[in-house]
Each structure stands twice: as structure tokens, then as C-alpha cells.
Amino acid sequence: MFMGEYSHTIDAKGRLIVPSKFRELLGNEFVVTKGLDGCLFVYPNQEWNSIEEKFRNIPLTTKDARKFSRFFFAGAAVCEVDKQGRILLPQVLREFADLQKDIVLVGVLSRIEIWSRERWQDANTYDDMDEIAEHMAELGLSI
Known about the structure:
Distance between the termini: 18 Å
Structural class: alpha+beta
């Protein structure tokens, strides 16, 4: 399980250091793709294979399924960790998530999210947590 929040920077070539705690769970090769809310999603290969299998079972006659599949898979890239613990993020993914310098990597259960610091701060205000917690309880999740 991935958890925690780490601040890093991305260099001019698009290289980003992956925190060692995350590298232990990811291994040397994993998948990065467009995520929701303007961030990138990072999946270990085993989790990515599971996601692929789920998408294979969705009928292609559903327009939303086709569109989401294109969004999710067309931008996906296999990334390898170099000797310095860095990955090279493809330009198309950096542009999608507006990754320029200051980055936040966040562990979220089975995936990691990569955010620009500005988007992370804008998207993650927690003044509505009581209301959200009520909705989560309706979904069967209570803490």
C-alpha cells in the first residue's frame, strides 16, 4: 500500500526522483498515465495488469468506456528508475499535469499520484471533510 506525501522537483529534462519508500513497492519499472483531477497516476506492473484486465471486459459499444480507455491508455508510459532513483516523465504527461518544477508525490492505496505543487494545493482543501465523510459512510466506508 502506498501512503504519504513527498515534495520534490522535476529537472529541465523531465526527470523526477521517486521517493525510496515508493521505489521499494514499485520496483524498477512501472506505468505512469494521465490521472483524474489533473494529476498523473503511477501503478506497479501487477496493479496495471489488473486494471488492463478489467478494461478488456468492458464492451466497446459503450461510448464513455471507449473515451475513458483512450484517455487512460493512450497516454500511458512505462518508466524505469535510473541509478539515481529518477524516472524520465514523457513530455505529454508533464504537459497534461502541468509539471514544471515543484512536484508533490502522494501515496493513495494502490497507486501514487504526481501533482504540480500548485494544483495539489488548489485541489486539496479539506474544509468539507465532514460532508465528504458522510457520503463515504453511505458507500459503506466509515472510520
